[in-house]
Every structure is written in structure tokens, then in C-alpha cells.
Amino acid sequence: MTDDITRTAHPDELAAALMKMGALTPDWLPAYHAVPRHRFVPDVIWPGHADENRQDDRVIRGDDPELWWRAVHSDVPITTQWDDGAYDGPGRGAIPSSSSSMPRMVFLMLAALEVEHGHRVLEIGTGTAWNAALLAHRVGAGNVVSVEVDASLAEEARRRLAGFGMDPILVVGDGSLGYPELAPYDRVIATCSIGRIPPAWIAQSRPGGVIVAPWGPTYGGEGIVRLTVAHDGTASGRFTGSSAFMRLRQQRVERPPFRAYLSEPWPADGTRSSTTLSPDEVGEWIDMFAIGVQVPRMFCRVERYDDGSYTLWLYDTDVTSWATADYEPDAVEYDVRQAGPRRLWDELESAWRWWDNQDRPDFDRFGLTVGPAGNERVWLDRPDNLVPNSVPTT
């Protein structure tokens, strides 16, 4: 065991660490003890790392029970499925598709939800069912509706919940559609990330109801948004902090391969320029969020080299434009190439400099408003101070 509070080896130690950081509050402590995390984690896992998107190699409980136990009672996310269940081997798969979320994030989101006994709650993404169990203990199992797209995961979740005598309503289906049969809901919580709020979640919420979800743009960066639903069917609220969740399957963004953009070797038809903005300045999670909410339909990849340099590749999802920015240690100017109708590096740099000129606001200064037609706008500090868009969003 290390001295890092994110690494513990006992549920009581983890609870103490979570309470010390303000994530686990006294009102959720009874639920924490009543439905311990280790009862909701499968025997085969891939432990993650706090505040990082990477997983360790596979851990099998029967082979190394101590390592499994230590991972489960650490403040880290744990991947429990790869590639929608298609991968089942040693090492790691291509895309993580289900997990037991980081306990810190679990309780921060539950705190933001502000549930009360008797509230009817719609959960999107049952996963291992730990979050559903915590909610069921708090508001009553009959008041929890949890939607899971993967039938096998839903069956395992049902079995785990039955071990505690809990019988919340588990639905196998498309989480973006909610579950209208038992609407309206007082609270909606998503344990998967989204790039737009599904209209069904708002339509199935009571006026004054709360939606808590991880929301992030295509480019990257993601935060927990807490929306309050109004009588007119709109919803608005602030981001409460950063997050990193697996995407709702129905909202995964296709990222075309490199060869879709260049028909001949780089630099192909790219126009050369230079910039004083280092690619190293634009890669933090909040940087990516601030860029992404201004620059739609753009994503990036990084090509690294042995000497510490790298190339930041930018692409648009419409497969019309690309750009590169070359990072070299100790450089003061950086080579840029751009091709296509969009000048993607210019858009990125303009967006980053806007964020820089606003004193580099963190997630909690941003907010989101969903209009009556489902149109979304991100704002800074107040709803009428809209974040600019570099290109049309249509």
C-alpha cells in the first residue's frame, strides 16, 4: 500500500480518504457500507489510474486476490469490459466499453444529484450495478429505473442486486431513449459520457428535475454538467468539474483513419505556416474542453518520436480538412501545415487564445443550456455570455 490516498486496501480506508477529499458525505456513508464496491466488481478486471485514461493489464481474482482486492478498494476506475464484450483475452482490448467508475466520481455525481427518499431516479448505464445499488439504498429500489444497452451486463447486474434483496427496474435498451413507461422522473443520472443531451431525458423529467451527466465535445475534454429542467422543456446549469467516462454507445463519434485524409505522403497539399503557440500548451483536459466547445467536428491524434518531439494531427469528422503542428523541445516557433476548406490549426489557436484571454477558466465557470428544439449552447459565467463558435454548427 502506498501513501497516496487514491491507493487503499480496505473499504474503511477508502471511505476515510473519500470523506477527507469531500467526495463522500455523511448522508451517503450508510449506502457505501451497505452495498460495498467489491460485491459489484467481476473477477476479471483491468485497474485504471486516478485522473488518467489508461488501464493496467488484466487482473484475475483467482490468480492474484490481493491485487484484485487492492484495486477494488482504491480510488481508481476499473475497466470490466472491452470492445462491447467481443474481447476476452489477456492484455487489453481496443476500446473500453464498461467499467466500475472511480469512487470519487461516483459520490461527487451523487452529491450533485441531490436525491431525496422517494425520488424517482432514471439511471443511464447500469454497468456493474454499484451506482444503482447505492441509489436503491438511498431512495428505495422501486424508485430506481436503470437502463443498460448490454443484455449480458444487465443480467449480471440483476444477479448482484438480488444478492442484496434489491429489485430496481432494470431495462435492456437504448439509454438515449430513457424509459417513458415510468416517467416523469425527479432525477436523471448518466454513468456514460455524452456529446449532446438526449431530448428524451428532458422530456421525461419533471419541471424542476435535475439531470447530472458527463458531457464533452468531440475534440476532447469532459465535465460533469448539472442541469435543471424548466417548465418549457428547456434545461440549463453549470459544470461541476472534470470527468472522463466511456461514451454512450449511440453517441460514439467515428474517427476516420489517417489514409482518408491524405492521398499522397505528407505534407501532400498542406500549406505551410508557423506559430508561437506550442502544441504542448493545448493538450490539458480543460484546454481540450475549451477548444472543443468552440470548434465543432474536430478530433486529434498524436504521433510521437524517440527524441521527445511529436506531431499533433487535427482532422475534421466530415473528412474535408486536416492540419499538423510539430512540437520540438525548447523550440519557440512550431511548424504548421493545413489543408482543406477549414484551417483547423487556426481554429484551434483562435479558440485557445479566447480561453487564455478569459483568464483560463476551469470547468466550474462553464455552463450549458439546452433549448426547446434540443439546440445546445455552452456559456461562460452566465447563460447570456455564450462561448463563441469558430464555424457553423450545422
Automatic annotation (TrEMBL):
InterPro entries: PCMT, SAM-dependent_MTases_sf. It is found in: Cytoplasm. CDD domains: AdoMet_MTases (cd02440). This is Protein-L-isoaspartate O-methyltransferase. The keyword Cell membrane does not apply. Belongs to the methyltransferase superfamily. L-isoaspartyl/D-aspartyl protein methyltransferase family. GO terms for molecular function: methyltransferase activity. Keywords: Cytoplasm, Methyltransferase, S-adenosyl-L-methionine, Transferase. Its EC number is 2.1.1.77. One of its GO terms (biological process) is methylation.
